[in-house]
Amino acid sequence: MKTPNANRKAPLFAAILAGGRGERFWPVGRRSRPKQFVDLFGGKPLIAHATDRLRGLVPTSRILVVTSADLVQATRAALPSLAPEQVLGEPEGRDTAAACALATAWVRAKAGESAVVAILTADHLMADAVGFRETLASAASVAAARPVMALVGIKPTHPATGYGYVELGAPFSGPGLPKGFRKVRRFVEKPNLGTAAVYVKSGRFVWNSGMFVWRVSVFEDALRRFRPALSEAMGRLSPLFASPRAVRAALKREYSALEKISVDYAVMEKADNLVAVRGDFGWDDVGAWTSAGEHFPKDASGNAVHGAAQLLAATGNVVANTQRGHLVAVMGASDLVVVHTPDATLVCTREAAPGLKALVAQIGADPATAHFVE
C-alpha cells in the first residue's frame, strides 16, 4: 500500500524527542544509555527504528532529534545518516513543552512558519510501519490545511491503567480533508481499572501517545497564548540556528529559566483547536521488561527469551541475556524477569518489574555501586 503524501506546499519535518534516564530497563538501560539505545528489538536501537519508519514520508534531512546534551554523541553514533546539526542537546531537562518549542523553533529557522512539524517518540515500537506513515501523513495534511494541532491517539486494545486517555468529540471534517478526525473534548490522567474499562467500552477514547502534528505558526500562536515566557525564549533562539556554537551558548543561557512542564499541561489541555485521529498500527511504548517480553520469541511454556538461556519446568518468565559466552539458566520458577549484562543481573517478579525505578534509585544512592547508573 502506498503511503499518501502530505500537503506538498507545507514541508513535513519530524522532531523525535529522545530524553530518558534508563531506569525502566535497568540493567541494560543506564543513564548513559537510556531506553532509546536499547537494541533488543530487531538488532538495532529503538531510536533507529524511530527514524527508519519515516522512510518514504519524511526525508532524512528533515529529521531532528532533541535529546540531552550528554547524549548527543551517543545519538549521533546511533544515527550516522543525520548531520550533526540535526541532533540538538538540551543543557537541562525541562520536560516536553520546552523540547517541542525548541524543535518548532528549529523548523522555523529551516523552512519558515508554514512548515509542518510531527512530534514523535524515540523509544516506542510500531508493528505496522506503513499504517503509521499513513496516519502521520493524514495528520500532516490536516495540520497543513487548517489552523489546528493534531494528536495521533492510539486505539485501545485493553483497559490499561498506565496511559493517559483522550476523549474524542464531534467529527472534524471538510472539503479535501482526510476522514477519521475528531475534535478533542478532554484529556484524562491515568485512570483506575474500572474507569479504564468504561472508557474502552465506550469507543470514545484513545490512548495519548504523545505524538502531535502542527504547523509552525499554529503552535507558536498557542505558545504566545498559554506560555508567553517560553514563546519569547524560542523567539530569541530561532535566529541563531545557523551557528551551532551560538545556539549552544544561548541554550545554556535560556534553559535554566524555563518552566519544567509537559506540552500536554502547558498547551494541549488548554487549546481549543486540537483534533485527533485513531492510530491502529501496533503501537507499544515498551514501558517495562514485561512489555519488552512481548517482542521476544516465546517457547511452549510462555517464556519470552532473548539471548543464551536454558529453562526447565519454568513458565511465563522474561529472560534477557546480553553477555556473549554466558548462559542464564532458570529452573522451577514462574513469572520472573531475569536480565543479565556483563556487570549486573536483575531478578524480580513480573508484577514488580514496572516499579524498577525504585531499585535503580537505591543503587544510585550507594557510592559503591553508583557506576551502575552513570
Give a structural overview.
The chain is globular, with a radius of gyration of 21 Å. 44% of the residues are buried. Helix 3 packs across helix 6 (216-226) and helix 3 (95-111) packs across helix 7 (228-237). It contains eleven helices and 17 strands. With 374 residues, the chain is an alpha/beta fold. Helix content is 30%, strand content 25%. A hairpin with a 2-residue loop joins strand 16 and strand 17. It has two domains: 12-284, Spore Coat Polysaccharide Biosynthesis Protein SpsA, Chain A (Alpha-Beta Complex), CATH 3.90.550.10; 289-373, no CATH class.
CATH architecture of the largest domain: Alpha-Beta Complex
CATH topology of the largest domain: Spore Coat Polysaccharide Biosynthesis Protein SpsA, Chain A
Task: Identify the quaternary structure here.
Answer: single chain
Q: What's the alpha carbon Rg, rounded to whole Å?
A: 21 Å
Order of helices and strands: EHEHEHEEHEEEHEHHHHEEHEEEEEEH
Name the shape in a single word. globular
Under the CATH scheme, which class of the largest domain? Alpha Beta
Q: In percent, how much strand structure appears in the residues?
A: 15-25%
Distance between the termini: 45 Å
Strand order of the largest sheet: 6-9-7-8-10
Number of strands: 17
Please state the average pLDDT score. 92
- Major beta sheet summary: 5 strands, mixed, barrel
Q: Counting H and I runs of at least 4 residues, what is the number of helices?
A: 11
